[in-house]
Amino acid sequence: MSEDSQQKQSKGWLGDRPGRSLLRIGAALLGTVLAGTALATVWPKPDPEGADVQSSNGSLALAPLPEQAVMVLVVGLDADTINATSNQAAPQGPSNADSLMLVNIGKKQPVQILQLPTELAVQLPGVEEMQALSTTWKHGGIALTSDVVGELIDLPTNKPDRYLVLSRQSLRRFVEGLGDIEVNLNQTYKYEDKSQGYNVNLQAGLQTLNGAQAEQLARHKPKPNDDHQRRVRQRLLLQGVHQQLAEIDAVTVIPELLNVFSNQVTTDISASEMLSLMAAAISAPSAPVITELPLAPRAGQQRLRELKPDLSLPIWPAQN
Fold first, then answer.
1. Distance from C-alpha of 39 to C-alpha of 162, rounded to nearest angstrom
2. Rounded distance, CA 130 to CA 136, Å?
3. Distance CA 173, CA 179 (A)
4. Residue 51's CB: how many other CB atoms inside 10 A?
5. pTM of the entire structure?
6. Pairwise CA distance, residues 99 & 88, whole Å
7. What is the mean pLDDT of the chain?
8. Helical residues (DSSP H) of 153-223, grouped into ranges
9. Biggest CA-to-CA distance, the chain
10. CA distance 180 to 178
11. Cβ atoms of 279 and 62 closer than 8 Å
């Protein structure tokens, strides 16, 4: 992605939220001045002569750990590549946000992950009928997706700080670069997806998953209303990734992994920032705290869901 397009998308995060018109006008007028000031409080200003310099073993120079917690919106697309015009699903169409998470990473604190239900009903600008949260990506890309997520859980106007968009291929490449992921499955999963050309064949018990198998576990949804159980399976994968990160030689593996991985994603996280966040996550004092946005009970076979009533705002992240 070009620098210009990244800047346009970052500015679009303020979006069309009620009661925030003055902030959007201010952001449009001040632009990069405000952005630069805000980010300086998160990461110390890098040395211009030392930023992203290759070391003798080919790895990027490690950036300082973030001074404040950094919130990243992670969007997993149902398309095989970032720029694919079709998701190759049945029925075929533009990419959807197949998985949505907010990840909060800070120095010397557990990583917090909030799984967002893609089946949640939301009202989108210019669309008469309620839509699934997953469709925000095809309707308005990262700008609309970030705005809607922020409005749902009452985030401050400057949150999330960053975004990371992955395709199915991105997930496979990440797992392959990290090394196989170990998970313990409580049942066997078998399913054939003819539209997208892959089979799910995972055995119960302790399993070591390669990139293709990790995709199978993350995306397996044999029934239309199986979204919650799918998130449970994705949680197993997240826990397996954390365990693998704790066991590898991070100094050797992580920089090379990010060099390869950066070509497979769309993000406004710089290389040095990515290393900083990875270092903070690996050095966290305990395992990630993974929670799910609570929903009201399903009424019959309804596809779209509603938030659990009477939730206290802000919903997330938990305050340390």
1. 10
2. 11
3. 10
4. 14
5. 0.81
6. 16
7. 80
8. 168-178, 211-219
9. 61
10. 7
11. yes
CB-CB neighbours of 161 under 10 Å: 22
d(CA 240, CA 292): 18
The answer to whether 122 and 110 are in contact (CB under 8 A) is: no
The closest of 274, 314, 265 to 293, measured between CA atoms, is 314
In the numeric block, which tokens belong to residue 47? 């040395």
3-state secondary structure of 283: coil
As to burial, measured by CB atoms within 10 angstroms (0-12 exposed, 13-18 middle, 19+ buried), residue 245 is middle
Tens digits of residue pLDDT in 262-295:
888 999 999 889 989 988 898 889 999 999 999 9
Alpha carbon 161 to its chain centroid, in Å, reads 12
| Alpha helices for the chain (secondary structure H) | 3-11, 21-30, 32-40, 136-152, 168-178, 211-219, 227-247, 250-261, 271-282
Does residue 202 sit in helix, strand or coil? strand
What is the rounded distance in angstroms from the CA atom of residue 4 to the CA atom of residue 31? 13
Alpha carbon separation from 190 to 26, 148, 222, 294 (Å, rounded): 53, 34, 9, 28
CA nearest neighbour of 186 among 203, 201, 198: 203
In terms of DSSP bridges, do strands 131-132 and 205-209 run parallel, antiparallel, or are they unpaired? unpaired
What tokens does 157 get? 């106007």
Indicate the pLDDT class of residue 56, thresholds 50, 70 and 90.
Answer: very low
In single-letter form, the type of residue at position 187 comes to Q
CA gap 247, 122 in Å, rounded: 40
Mark residue 154 as left, alpha or beta (left: phi above 0; alpha: psi -120 to 50; beta: remaining). left
pLDDT of residue 41: 52
CA dihedral over 185, 82, 166, 95, signed as positive or negative: negative
51 vs 49: CA distance, rounded Å: 6
3-292 CATH? 3.40.630.190
Q: Kindly indicate the confidence band of residue 221, based on its pLDDT and cuts at 50, 70 and 90.
A: confident
